[in-house]
Amino acid sequence: MGEQMKLEGQLRGHNGWVTQIAASPVYKNMLVSSSRDKTIILWQLDESGSVLTGKPLKSLHGHGHFVSDVVMSSDGQYALSGSWDKLCVFGTSTRFGRTTRQFVSHTKDVLSVAFSADNRQIVSGSRDKKIKLWNTLAQCKHTIVNECHTDWVSTVRFSPSNTNPVIVSAGWDRIVKVWNLGTCQLKTNHIGHGGYINPVTVSPDGSLCASGGKDGSAMLWDLNEGKHLYTLGGNDVINALAFSPNRYWLCAAVGPVVKIWDLEDKTVVDELRLDIATITTGKKQPSPPQCTSLAWSLDGQTLFVGYTDNLIRVWRMDPPSDKVLSAIIKSVATLLSAGIACYVTLKVVTLLDPNHERKKEAKKRMEELGAA
């Protein structure tokens, strides 16, 4: 029995495309978003009612052009943004609305920014074809030039892994590059895309990264072994990618649709589509808005999706029915009796057994019981 997500609401506040969304890694009621309206909004989320709602709490107006990216530090205290005005802006989420520092060095639009796992380093990528490494005092410590991209650097991300600390970048030269964080030297070139690359995302454990772009393909790469694993077909331009924090899922903004893949069996779990007739005005629309950004909530139950109609839409997991709960209980009992450890979050039973064959056998048993 596959899991389904439903459209629960929308967040209004931006007056331009929603270019990026970041959920707080610490505070479940905090969300931050960037837009082509040149602003960043800090959202206050409310789950006290029957549906999740949100309102703009504060806005940051520190940029003079489209804001292309925004991320939050792992402690939830700081926000970092990049813009077409060539600047990176660093501000506190607790005193949002005030620019703390500006990072000035790029000569063209800043397309992507990221925090390291320990929040001590910042990386930025730009249309000037350069990747820059900064400290939080806005001092540029290193500019990657050797073996860097030959076209726009569209995305940069840190791996959260302490055992394999790397920077992953991708660009309009169709290449995903993996850099050693300590030396800023190139480790691996991942080649395979047939068009420019928009997003790259790294899995929560730092073992995988996924890339997507113009060719409509989501490509999975092994960061530890430096190799291509497999390709998933999106069939339209991929604008954003996000790994689920608690499921073996990859989520993609594919044109106007959000696709969710189960990476274990490489199947589509769900496709989130908007009803064109009732998107905004209630009247028939010529075409649906494009999905431009994605972010999962901390608990993995809510997906925030940004669109070209200036809205953030909130998709949530359907609560499990009594029948599903009963099947889950039976599944867990079966797994425990077989000596296989697991934990449960709503309708998801996560297997902890390291033996892959036993996991496959257990999953088959769960499917027979109707809980997977």
Uncertain residue ranges: none
Number of helices: 2
Radius of gyration: 21 Å
Task: Sketch the major β-sheet.
Answer: 4 strands, antiparallel
CATH superfamily of the largest domain: YVTN repeat-like/Quinoprotein amine dehydrogenase
What's the CATH class of the largest domain, please? Mainly Beta
| N/C terminus separation | 5 Å
Beta fraction of the residues? over 45%
Question: Helix fraction?
Answer: under 10%
Please give a handful of descriptors for the protein shown.
globular; mainly beta; WD40_rpt; 4-stranded antiparallel β-sheet; ribosome binding; Small ribosomal subunit protein RACK1; 2 domains; RACK1-like; Methylamine Dehydrogenase, Chain H; 372 residues
What would your notes on this structure say?
It comes from Meloidogyne enterolobii (Root-knot nematode worm). Keywords: Repeat, Ribonucleoprotein, Ribosomal protein, WD repeat. Pfam families: WD40. One of its GO terms (molecular function) is translation regulator activity. This is Small ribosomal subunit protein RACK1. By secondary structure, this protein is mainly beta. The chain folds into two domains: 5-317, YVTN repeat-like/Quinoprotein amine dehydrogenase (Methylamine Dehydrogenase, Chain H), CATH 2.130.10.10; 322-369, no CATH class. The protein is 8% helix and 48% strand. It is built from two helices and 30 strands. The protein has helices at residues 322-337, 356-369, and strands at residues 5-11, 18-23, 30-35, 40-46, 53-60, 67-72, 78-83, 87-92, 101-104, 110-115, 121-126, 131-135, 140-144, 153-158, 166-171, 175-180, 186-191, 197-202, 208-213, 217-222, 227-233, 238-243, 249-254, 257-262, 267-272, 291-296, 302-307, 312-317, 342-345, 348-351. The strands form eight sheets. The protein has a four-stranded antiparallel β-sheet, with no helix packed on it. A four-stranded antiparallel β-sheet has the order 2-3-4-5, with no helix packed on it. Strands 6-7-8-9 form a four-stranded antiparallel β-sheet, with no helix packed on it. α1 packs antiparallel against α2 (356-369). It is globular. The protein starts with a strand and ends with a helix. The relative contact order is 0.12. The model has no long low-confidence stretch (mean pLDDT 86).
